[in-house]
Amino acid sequence: MTSQTKIALRINDENPNHHLWNNRGVWWCHVTVHKPDATAERLRFSLKTRDIEKARTRRDRIFADIQKHFGIAA
């Protein structure tokens, strides 16, 4: 069995703001990537917006980029 990188996404369909938090008016995204060597990397990104709709779009783009970077199947 081969190990692979996994992204930790706990998505609650009732919460469209999953993985987002507002820090003094600016939206941020956070996610944890679990690597094959049994380490984990916590990633946090400022989405550089005060608009929640833009924040959600940017979060989704970041998740897609992370999956490409680590070779994670969608």
Features:
4 strands; 74 residues; alpha+beta
How would you sum up this structure, described in words?
With 74 residues, this protein is α+β, with helices and mostly antiparallel strands. The protein has one domain. 26% of the residues lie in helices and 31% in strands. Strands 1, 2, 3 and 4 form a four-stranded antiparallel beta sheet that branches. The longest helix is centred in the C-terminal third of the chain and has 19 residues. The chain is elongated, with a radius of gyration of 13 Å. The two termini are 20 Å apart.
How is the secondary structure organized here?
Layout lengths: L5 E3 L11 E4 L2 E9 L5 E7 L5 H19 L4
Antiparallel strand pairs: 1-3, 2-3, 3-4
What structural category do the secondary elements indicate? alpha+beta
Mean pLDDT, to the nearest integer, reads 86
Low-confidence stretches: none
Number of helices: 1
Largest beta sheet, briefly?
Answer: 4 strands, antiparallel
What multimeric state do the chains show? Answer: single chain
